[in-house]
Amino acid sequence: MSKTVWNVDALHSEVQFKVKHLVISTVTGSFKSFSGSVRTEADQFENAEIEFTIDVNSVDTGQPGRDEHLRNADFFEAETYPQFNFVSTSFTKVKGDLYKLIGNLTIKGVTKEVEFEAEYGGTEKDSWGNIKVGFEVTGTIDRKDFNVTFNALTETGGLALGEKIKVIANVQLAKEVQQS
What we know:
By secondary structure, this protein is mainly beta. The protein has 1 helix and 11 strands, in the order ββββββαβββββ. It has one helix at residues 64-71, and strands at residues 3-8, 14-21, 25-31, 34-41, 44-55, 59-60, 83-95, 98-107, 110-125, 131-142, 161-175. It has an 8-stranded antiparallel barrel with strand order 1-4-5-7-8-9-10-11. A hairpin with a 2-residue loop joins strand 8 (98-107) and strand 9 (110-125). The longest helix has 8 residues, at 64-71. It is globular and about 45 Å long.
């Protein structure tokens, strides 16, 4: 059976992250530039092969100074490691519209297996007849696993930044039109 290719529609997708700041509030940021593709058997997403790349330099927390700090050597080292990469190893249906997504995430040259939950949001045709599919992917990663270890201490000796990073990606996929 031939593979169906779905490409991430970046205009209708978003990748966000949340991290605790001073352990009392949450900072939300996003990456503005990313790409990805999914290969499926026909239109069945079970066992899909997923690849996703994020442009680290596109980080945006709404504060340019903080974004610059995230890009530098204290955090992402964007000059040396300009991309985060994810390649799935399994995509299995849990129940209903819920899937478990497992794969290898590479940040700063370190690759670790991570697990996310993916919720199927539906399939629609857009105004031009293109078939679109939506998923919300959520999970938590530990930034220390990827050598993103910088942390300042608060006056009371607590960590200024949480170590667990929540990831929320709302992704719209566009079915690639087969050329005959």
